[in-house]
Specification:
By secondary structure, this protein is α+β, with helices and mostly antiparallel strands. It is 51% helix and 7% strand. It folds into two domains: 309 residues, 2-methylcitrate dehydratase PrpD; 125 residues, 2-methylcitrate dehydratase PrpD (60s Ribosomal Protein L30, Chain: A), CATH 3.30.1330.
Length: 455
């Protein structure tokens, strides 16, 4: 009981000096990874349309639409920057929450800090608080929340963004409690149907959550109150963990180990621009084509053996006219792109690449199967085995049990720096290097505008 109050008290009291050093450094890595996603997402036509729409709204020029060349109000900036954090599906995430906290938390924190002239120390405190809120709430309803039709990046992300913003606003425990309560009222519905249907509106979920979080905390600062039991609910059974899940929730996960274990340390990073459930197959194919110069024209068929959730969520194929959202959630497309391009980055999501007839034809020769043994070890392992049949009867096989980026096989600082440079495309390499340097020294950055102005 009182999970909402306990979470609010903890998040309101977070200070950089009290945080374990490894948590602070992990928060910097999350911001670094966020930058890579912003750069990469700006390659997509759908993102350009969102940016153009938001730019047309005008508004006060107090926060930067990162990488877009203009400033706007904090809500619009957080929205755009959440879209670019989300769109290429290479964002960080929490496996046991099914969510991507950074796409909501970091845009909200940076926009508000920029408007307020705050420094990197305050941003890091807000990011840690926001991740704790979003991740713990998501874990409390996982996987039933997703199976009930919601995307926790949007729903739980709004709580995280509200927590981060309240921390930057300097709200006390009661203010933080109201921010959480308000967030539970204004958060997005975030329908999973949109993702599964391949509709490009899916890309706004992080931005929508970021903007809602700013609204919730701003209202709390203005004196608007929200239910202090918004998460666990009251005798009316109307709490978030009750009404957004068809089945049993685990509200105790909101406070289990609070203050002794930081969920930020459980966050994974993605080397590839696709749903995490595709990464075992992607990594296996890329390792095979590097070991053996496979000619895609010689591929007669590919069989991918994986666990049940992966087959259900990302086992579907892709057809002409489908969007890059469908491609991100399709093992057949991911495998085909890796075979043809020996890469899976922003370029493999551009509209012209997704529509390529040769790539689509190859994807029809990829079959996805649920393997009983691989399913048995899930979720401890997210294993996939790829078997490629080539002309002449030759076969190649590779199994990946723990895809790269998992905390058990982590992407290092060097890996993430390279991801930023790779996704930055043809941007000025000196500015990209300086942005990386400033993020690495985030705790000493006097004014976050020193970062946002060069992205």
């Amino acid at each position: 009981m009182n999970e909402t109050r306990k979470l609010a008290a903890f998040c309101a009291g977070i200070t950089l000096g009290d945080l374990p050093r490894e948590v602070v450094e992990k928060a910097k890595l999350c911001i670094l990874d966020y930058l890579a996603n912003v750069y990469g997402s700006l390659e997509l036509d759908a993102v350009a349309k969102v940016v153009s729409y938001v730019r047309s709204l005008g508004g006060p020029k107090t926060a930067t639409a990162l990488g877009c060349g203009f400033k706007t109000g904090i809500h619009q900036a957080a929205f755009v920057n959440g879209v670019t954090a989300e769109a290429i599906e290479a964002q960080d995430g929490l496996r046991f929450g099914g969510n991507h906290a950074g796409t909501a938390v970091i845009p909200a924190a940076l926009a508000l800090a920029e408007e307020s002239g705050l420094g990197g120390k305050e941003v890091l405190e807000a990011v840690v608080a926001g991740y704790e809120a979003a991740n713990r709430i998501a874990a409390a309803v996982h996987p039933g929340h997703t199976l009930s039709g919601f995307l926790p990046t949007g729903t739980c992300g709004a709580f995280g963004a509200a927590c981060a913003a309240a921390r930057l606003m300097g709200l006390d425990e009661q203010g933080m409690l109201n921010a959480l309560g308000n967030a539970g009222y204004v958060l997005p519905l975030s329908m999973g149907e949109q993702l599964m249907g391949g509709y490009t509106v899916k890309i706004i979920q992080g931005g929508q959550a970021a903007a809602c979080g700013l609204t919730a905390s701003g209202l709390a600062r203005a004196g608007i109150t929200g239910a202090p039991y918004v998460l666990e609910g009251s005798e009316l059974s109307g709490g978030f963990v009750q009404i957004t899940i068809n089945g049993e929730s685990a509200p105790g996960k909101i406070t289990d180990g609070l203050g002794s274990h930081y969920t930020l340390m459980d966050v994974y990073f993605k080397p590839y621009t696709a749903c995490r459930h595709t990464h075992g197959a992607a990594q296996a194919v890329l390792e095979l084509v590097r070991e053996d110069r496979v000619d895609p024209r010689e591929v007669e068929g590919v069989d991918v053996y994986t666990y049940g959730i992966a087959q259900m969520a990302v086992g579907k194929g892709i057809s002409a006219g489908d969007t890059f959202v469908t491609a991100q959630f399709s093992i057949p497309y991911v495998v085909s792109a890796c075979l043809c391009d020996r890469d899976l980055g922003p370029g493999q999501l551009r509209e012209d690449r997704v529509a390529d007839p040769l790539l689509l034809a190859l994807s029809k020769r990829v079959q996805v199967h649920c393997d009983d043994e691989l399913n048995r070890v899930y979720p401890e392992k997210t294993s996939s085995r790829v078997e490629i049949s080539l002309e002449g009867g030759r076969k190649l096989s590779k199994q990946v049990d723990i895809p790269k980026g998992d905390p058990r096989d982590p992407m290092t600082l060097d890996d993430l720096e390279e991801k930023v440079r790779r996704f930055a495309g043809d941007r000025d390499p000196k500015k990209v290097a300086e942005a990386i340097r400033r993020i690495k020294a985030m705790d000493t950055l006097a004014d976050v505008r020193g970062l946002t102005e060069i992205i």
